[in-house]
Design brief:
Shape of chain B: globular
Order of helices and strands of chain B: EHHEEHEEHHHEHEHEEHHH
Structural class of chain B: alpha/beta
Structural class of chain A: mainly alpha
Bound molecules: adenosine-5'-triphosphate, magnesium ion
CATH architecture of one domain in chain B: 3-Layer(aba) Sandwich
Oligomer: heterodimer
Number of helices of chain B: 11
Helix content of chain B: 40-55%
Helix content of chain A: over 70%
Number of domains of chain A: 1
Distance between the termini of chain B: 18 Å
Mean pLDDT of chain B: 82
CATH topology of one domain in chain B: Rossmann fold
Chain lengths: 275, 273
């Protein structure tokens, strides 16, 4: 008798008719779309101001750093402001999504308790939301580049989307870990905030990597964010495409995605009990 | 109503480890690692459903009643597939739609219309499917022009209407209702009950949990009585509600005789088979 759609296992969506049916993919896409649209409506009640805010934050940081380091730094970077902006905008996106991930699941507890939808959609939507914010601020970066006489190249048309995709994979992986773990240890928010602050200084975002003494250079490979940020600097500041750094970024992103998905899959069936 | 089985529980038990979330978080865990590990190893699970078996046929409307903490919501969670049984098997066939509590799956800054899309997609429809049903949903909710106002301007009853309207237009095979109707006004509750009755003719299986025993008697084909995780009675609405009334007095001041009571009820299983 009990043949057809048993629902004993945890992670499947209620509506799934086949294992990976067309409808199920369609539904996942719609779910993410609706969730992202919701965030946008709420955040951008006034479109112009909303946009200004999301650009202002990293920009303000860039200006402050630029000002302070212009008279106290030990390193010389030409057009330092562009270097800063090139690293700060993508960093802001990563850091916002990872700290925000603490509430991607926890903030939807009443839904998770009752509805069997694909919970990973909450993470995908949260990250996508930050990615879109980042993407729409890229023109501001370009404006600064033009101002200082750096010309964007045609290769950007495919390099930028490619890097954005790598960044998104990395963020989704890390966010799956953070969002899942925060259901079990509720104080992860403070921990991730501190961790991201430390990573901000450990990663060459506001200083060039050649200020690192040679014996610490290995940290650039041990740090999941360093190769990715190096790529953004390469693209926006040095005007080159750093192939090795890109390889590193892809490997780290793949690893994070795999680990994140693994953690999520292993624990998703307990979400409704624990939220 | 057909002979087809829509929901089947086969010797289902559910245990919770009451403290699986580490209360103090990571900091606590690291600072007191040995004692925490010992506690995690020695903790006693709490058995909230105990060897429950039953079958519900397609198109039936059944209700679960019982005191607070009896395990009713847990049973619905198992049917919805959001939690797993610790032992035994749960089978539920078709599209399952829970009726959410007030405001869940909605956002108060969005308009009623946007919320219909959000809620419908969360409950398993694609956007195109929601759009097809949009007019029906709005009509059923009776919200009229207010539908384009932000949700924060709605009264709780109006939010409940919206939620119910979306849920019933999902064309579910199984509808799960956990005390969600109590905020609508009388006229709307009446309408919901009517709609539920219409559902039963549509071959929709409905599982209803409520403390409003009048409604339970009115709409159910069968009623299940849960007591501290045991299924202690099932059958015709009137009789089971009667039994509940009788036991209510007894169980309220005696925890001891509980086992003695739940034992002479193996009728549960033979009936279900
Ligand atoms: N996530 C959980 N973790 C630990 N214990 C839980 C959890 N959910 C429920 N319980 C326990 O399971 C028991 C049954 O809970 P349940 O919510 O099923 O009761 P109920 O019959 O719906 O009660 P009510 O009428 O108050 O809604 C309770 O003792 C409750 O403490
Ligand atoms: Mg309950």
């Amino acid at each position: 008798m009990s043949t057809a759609t048993g629902n004993i296992s945890g992670g499947r969506a209620t509506t799934a008719s086949g294992p990976l049916s067309h409808r199920r993919v369609r539904h996942y896409v719609d779910l993410v779309t609706v969730l992202v649209a919701k965030e946008f409506r709420v955040r951008y009640k006034s479109t112009v101001l909303g946009y200004a805010w999301s650009v202002m934050h990293p920009l303000a940081f860039a200006l402050v750093f630029c000002f302070i380091f212009s008279f106290m730094s030990k390193f010389e970077v030409e057009n330092y402001i562009i270097y800063l902006i090139a690293g700060l905008f993508p960093w802001q996106c990563l850091s916002n999504s990872i700290v925000g991930a603490n509430f991607y699941f926890l903030g939807n507890s009443s839904l998770i308790k009752k509805v069997k939808f694909d919970r990973a959609a909450l993470v995908t939507a949260g990250v996508l939301n930050e990615i879109i914010h980042f993407a729409v601020s890229i023109p501001v970066v370009m404006l600064f580049m033009l101002w200082y006489g750096h010309l964007p190249s045609l290769a950007w048309l495919w390099l930028v989307p490619m890097l954005v995709a790598v960044q998104m994979a990395m963020a989704i992986g890390l966010c799956l870990i953070v969002a899942t773990c925060n259901l079990f240890f509720r104080d992860l928010e403070r921990l991730t905030t501190i961790a991201m602050h430390l990573m901000f200084y450990v990663t060459p975002i506001i200083y060039p990597e050649n200020v690192l003494p040679a014996e610490y250079r290995w940290t650039l490979w041990a740090n999941p964010f360093a190769p990715l940020i190096r790529c953004w600097h390469g693209l926006f500041y040095y005007g080159e495409f750093p192939a090795t750094a890109f390889l590193g970024a892809v490997l780290w992103a793949g690893a994070m995605l795999a680990i994140g998905y693994g953690v999520y899959r292993a624990l998703v069936w307990r979400f409704a009990e624990i939220v | 109503m057909s002979d087809e089985v829509a929901i089947a529980f086969d010797h289902v038990s559910k245990e919770y480890h009451v403290d699986s979330a580490i209360p103090g978080g990571v900091k606590e865990l690291v600072l007191h690692l040995p004692s925490h590990l010992r506690r995690l190893r020695e903790r006693e699970p709490l058995r909230v459903l105990n060897d429950v078996s039953f079958e519900i046929r397609r198109g039936q409307c059944v209700s679960f009643i019982g005191r607070n903490g009896a395990g009713k919501s847990t049973t619905l969670g198992l049917i919805a597939g959001v939690i797993r049984p610790s032992s035994g098997t749960v089978v539920a066939r078709g599209r399952i739609c829970p009726l959410l509590e007030l405001g869940a799956g909605f956002h108060h800054e969005l308009s009623g219309r946007d919320n219909i899309v959000l809620n419908g997609v969360l409950l398993g429809m694609t956007r195109a499917e929601v759009r097809e049903r949009m007019d029906q949903i709005i009509a059923f909710s009776e919200l009229g022009r207010l539908i384009d106002q932000p949700l924060r301007t709605y009264s709780s009853g109006m939010i409940a209407r919206l939620g119910f309207s979306v849920a019933v237009h999902l064309e579910p095979d199984i509808l799960l209702v956990d005390e969600a109707l109590s905020v609508g006004d009388e006229a709307f509750q009446e309408k919901c009950v009517d709609r539920m009755k219409a559902f039963m003719e549509d071959d929709v299986t409905m599982v209803y949990v409520s403390h409003a025993l009048n409604t339970v008697e009115e709409i159910s084909d069968r009623v299940f009585l849960l007591d501290q995780g045991h299924l202690i009675a099932q059958g015709a609405p009137h009789e089971v509600v009667e039994e509940y009334h009788q036991r209510l007095g007894v169980t309220s001041h005696a925890a001891g005789p509980k086992d003695a009571k739940s034992e002479p009820q193996p009728a549960t299983k033979s009936q279900a088979a």
